[in-house]
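Input sequence (335 aa), recorded before submission:
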Amino acid sequence: MALFDLPLDKLRAYRSAAAEPDGFDPFWAQTLAETRGHDLDAVFTRVPTGLTTLETYDVTYSGFGGHRVKGWLVLPAGSTEPLPLLVEFVGYGGGRGHAHSHLLWASAGFAHFVMDTRGQGSGWSSGDTPDPVGSAPSSPGFLTRGIEDPREFYYRRVFTDAVRAVEAARSHPLADGTRTAVTGISQGGGITLAVAGLVPDLVAVAPDVPFLCDFPRAATLTDKNPYREIGRYLAVHRDRRARAFETLSYFDGVHFAARATAPALFSTALEDDVCPPSTVFAAYNAYAGSSKQIEVYDFNGHDGGGPFQQVSQLKWFAERLGAASADGSSATTQA
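Predicted structure, token format:
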């Protein structure tokens, strides 16, 4: 697709007009307090994968509402001391996949935790976590489930699961919780931004082509899924526009970005019509962390930087978290 969004100079100056709800902070403080009333009860079970250089653990912990959420923890084989921790969230429709599917970050010396996404995992990778909470009528997909009430909205549960994923990963003795980063692509990038705004002591944040940002612009700029789910819903429920966007405002990556404190490495692609670059820059320009940078891929779509972005991330994470060998010794110093 040809370039369709704002020119790059205007993207770098773009600010979202999305209004932040007055009750944003109390809403999330109450949500997390209610969830922490349930025992985290993180359980790590070693699973055989046939891989000799990595060790993988099947993880179960209590997320939103005490619901049990799955994940993988992947470690370099033979690790004996705590490693820098990288928590990853997956893209829309996907789940945690198979135990042998996650090779990169543990191979680079990190403790790598992958959160399963409740109710997803039947699109492009498998999942193992149900969402036991139903919803009022919604458009197919997840973006309008509970959209008339922020307390019932689907992503309240997912974002809360993600905060608890960080807590679960940090509870493992081979994860160094003082060196924790979060990352993800698309939906995973949007969840990354939410966690960046809700967990104050992260060391690094890396959202790639993030979804769930600048809802008012995204819902009217692109006709691609998943954002199009909002339009289809409102085409039927014509009288519920204000209520829907009020709910979405509690989950907008722009508002979480404004509360983040850790250094960040973003990516965007100028031909991305799934997560348009202006919506990514809306979050990037609002990001309040101690430092930030964004990689821009001029001629790519929602694939973003792909392996090129991973090259940038490998260096960037090592500089901020320190890479570690199997015996736990640091290969680089923290920047």
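Checked by second reader. The radius of gyration is 19 Å.
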